[in-house]
């Protein structure tokens, strides 16, 4: 059954124009912001119950009007609005007294970062460039250098914006283990959404950005309550977060390998396991990596969960030793 939009169809305007007006409304209301993807031709056709030709005409009209822009291998995203064309998304109402108004360039930088994230999500971090982001936004490349000094600073902003997506519960689990599990899984799910992110998070050269500090302080809260010395507590937190990052570092290469070979991780192991055994006859490698009859079931997420439990088992032993009289 096709999903129908709640948009009113009682008007006399052609169907494609009603779609155009609805997408514009979403942009003006801040439901869609610069860099956000808009529905594809197929999705528009399904959502509004129209022919694909009508959906294509609606998107083409939006492109001609500068509301959206097509990015190669990404799709169609909301464009940087031209001055005076329509209100900027999520524009604040009258500022409160004694409250500093947000500098104009902050909104532009946020749209730049969101666009860079959209490109990285679709094509990987290597596809991100100042020029590519400027092209996606439909603005001159040099105008972005007034917002960031280069790709390194843009990468830090992207990482911090991604960590800003984390919803940290105000009332976390009471036990140290449940809280560390939650912290690890929140981070893992963030990396699943953004497979390029692990490469921007460093153990040796961390970026003290607001959202990453917020996550670290929240996670360290339970470590501070463990009753172990502070140095050991820091190592516990670093071990957990770096384990998640290290495991997630396989996500982007895995996706690239699957695109290149057409094989899932389980299928790859099954096809190459005989060669592993032939090359390392004394290694004791398992003859299969998935349950019998399901050689495609190898799952990095399962590997992550099992490794997390092993790591936390070790933390439990460490805590027990430090609490001994």
Shape: globular
What fraction strand? under 5%
Instruction: Give the biggest beta sheet.
Output: 2 strands, antiparallel
- SSE series: HHHEEHHHHHHHHHH
- Overall domain count: 3
Helix content class: 55-70%
Broad CATH class of the largest domain: Mainly Alpha
Radius of gyration: 24 Å
**Overall SS class:** mainly alpha
Going across the biggest sheet, name each strand in turn.
Answer: 1-2
The helix tally amounts to: 13
Count of beta strands: 2
Kindly state the mean pLDDT as a whole number?
Answer: 79
Distance between the termini: 66 Å
CATH architecture descriptor of the largest domain: Orthogonal Bundle
Question: The CATH topology of the largest domain, please?
Answer: Tetracycline Repressor, domain 2
Quick synopsis:
With 325 residues, the protein is an all-alpha fold. 56% of the residues lie in helices and 2% in strands. It has helices at 15-28, 41-48, 52-64, 104-123, 130-137, 141-144, 151-163, 176-193, 210-224, 230-248, 251-261, 265-279, 300-323; strands at 68-71, 75-78.
What would your notes on this structure say?
- The chain has 325 residues and is mainly alpha-helical.
- It has three domains: 15-73, Winged helix-like DNA-binding domain superfamily/Winged helix DNA-binding domain (Arc Repressor Mutant, subunit A), CATH 1.10.10.10; 104-163, Arc Repressor Mutant, subunit A, CATH 1.10.10; 165-325, Tetracycline Repressor, domain 2, CATH 1.10.357.10.
- Helix content is 56%, strand content 2%.
- The protein contains 13 helices and two strands.
- The chain has helices at 15-28, 41-48, 52-64, 104-123, 130-137, 141-144, 151-163, 176-193, 210-224, 230-248, 251-261, 265-279, 300-323; strands at 68-71, 75-78.
- A two-stranded antiparallel ribbon has the order 1-2.
- Helix 9 (210-224) packs across helix 10.
- The radius of gyration is 24 Å and the shape is globular.
- The termini are far apart.
- The model is unreliable at 1-10, 82-102 and 289-293 (pLDDT under 50).
């Amino acid at each position: 059954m096709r999903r129908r939009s709640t948009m009113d169809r009682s008007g006399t305007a052609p169907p494609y124009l009603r779609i155009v007006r609805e997408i514009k409304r979403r942009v003006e209301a801040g439901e869609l912001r610069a860099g956000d993807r808009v529905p594809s031709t197929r999705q528009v056709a399904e959502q509004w119950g129209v022919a694909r030709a009508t959906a294509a005409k609606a998107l083409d009209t939006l492109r001609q009007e500068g509301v959206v822009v097509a990015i190669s291998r990404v799709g169609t995203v909301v464009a940087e609005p031209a001055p005076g064309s329509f209100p900027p998304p999520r524009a604040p109402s009258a500022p409160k007294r004694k409250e500093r108004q947000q500098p104009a360039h902050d909104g532009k930088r946020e749209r730049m970062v969101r666009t860079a994230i959209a490109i990285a999500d679709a094509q990987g971090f290597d596809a991100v460039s100042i020029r590519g982001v400027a092209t996606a936004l439909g603005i001159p490349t040099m105008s972005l250098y007034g917002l960031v000094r280069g790709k390194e600073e843009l990468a830090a902003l992207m990482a911090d914006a991604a960590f800003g997506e984390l919803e940290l519960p105000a009332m976390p689990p009471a036990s140290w283990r449940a809280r560390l599990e939650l912290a690890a899984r929140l981070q893992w799910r963030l990396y699943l959404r953004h497979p390029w992110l692990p490469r921007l998070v460093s153990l040796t050269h961390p970026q003290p950005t607001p959202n990453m500090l917020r996550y670290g302080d929240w996670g360290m809260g339970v470590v501070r309550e463990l009753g172990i010395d502070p140095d050991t507590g820091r190592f516990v937190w670093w071990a957990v977060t770096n384990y998640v990052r290290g495991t997630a570092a396989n996500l982007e290469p895995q996706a690239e390998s699957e695109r290149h070979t057409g094989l899932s991780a389980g299928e790859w192991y099954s096809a190459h396991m005989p060669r592993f055994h032939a090359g390392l006859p004394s290694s004791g490698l398992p003859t299969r990596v998935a349950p019998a009859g399901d050689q495609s079931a190898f799952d990095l997420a399962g590997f992550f969960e099992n490794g997390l439990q092993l790591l936390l088992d070790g933390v439990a032993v460490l805590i027990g030793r430090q609490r001994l009289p």
